[in-house]
Design goal:
Blueprint (H helix, E strand, L loop, with lengths): L2 H17 L27 E5 L1 H4 L4 H6 L1 H6 L4 E4 L33 H13 L3 E6 L3 E3 L4 H4 L21 E3 L5 H18 L3 E4 L7 H12 L5 E4 L12 E3 L1 H13 L2 H13 L7 E4 L4 H6 L9 H8 L5 E5 H5 L5
Parallel strand pairs: 1-2, 1-10, 2-3, 3-6, 6-7, 7-8, 8-9, 9-10
Antiparallel strand pairs: 4-5
Amino acid sequence: MKPFHIIKLFLISFLLISNLGSCNDDNDTIKEISNSEVSPITAHNKVIYEINARNYSSEGFNGVKKDLQRLKDLGVDIIWLMPIHPIGTLKREGSLGSPYSIRDYKAINPELGTENDFKSLIETAHSLHIEIWMDWVANHTAWDHPWVTSHLDYYASQNGQQPYSPNGWNDVAQLNYSNPNLRTAMIGAMKYWVQNYNIDGYRCDAVTFVPLDFWQQAIPQVNSIRKIKWLAEGDNPAYMSVFDYDYAWDFNNKLNDFGTGSNASGLIQACKDLYNNPAYSGKGRMVYLTNHDLNSHDGNRIRKVRRQCFAIIRFIFYDLRYASFVQRTGNRNE
């Protein structure tokens, strides 16, 4: 049976279950199947688990490492670590600051642990066949990144101001990708973590804010060290010329529309589009119910839908399935 037929049948079943008012029936008997008995439909069929190590555990990397076996038992294939770098203090927003305000691309936030702690986390994850992907913020830096004083030409100008804060993000400074020296420095920083820490992939933040030709230049150079995986935070098919995965934004919107307005036809069309878009031939897409941005901007999003049933719908897809600490625990502090 084709994947879409499976989805369509599941949606029908879901509508029937919804009419009964519950996704659970305490009288049902469910046979548990171990993860070892489940085979992926395609090579892209993996579960990615997002972790903000600072909020996940007071022990930082070591706290994550202690949980690896449990996460493996839950079916996690990839851990995506939100940025692990030192956080800017100049123009910081809030007492803790955003991990997406990077002060040094080649350093580790001491709140999370040491270089050896990070290496130990990666080595332990690899022993369990779990990949470690880093979050990479290429569009901007913190205002107190050394480049601001040593290489002002690395930064863009706007209305006579250099640097400037893009998109109302007051704690960061916009980089200038028309400068070839910036490109060389950024690629060097990305290579650093592959060469020295053996990471398995990058989730690239705000990817379409950075010119496509930079990624076409950078990704092959990094992959020349070791072929890793690349997830684009965006949904522009043109970027799939070099990326392995992107975000299934429209599918997420239709899924949540279905949860709030029962728009089954819109969701069925979104399923067709998800499976039949030729731009993604041989590529993958990340399907999700929420993520840290949506959780931050619309914290009641999960409560708008029947979480358990939607999690099941999301997890029958063949591509990259997203989960996070905040979804598993309900802790919105992540």
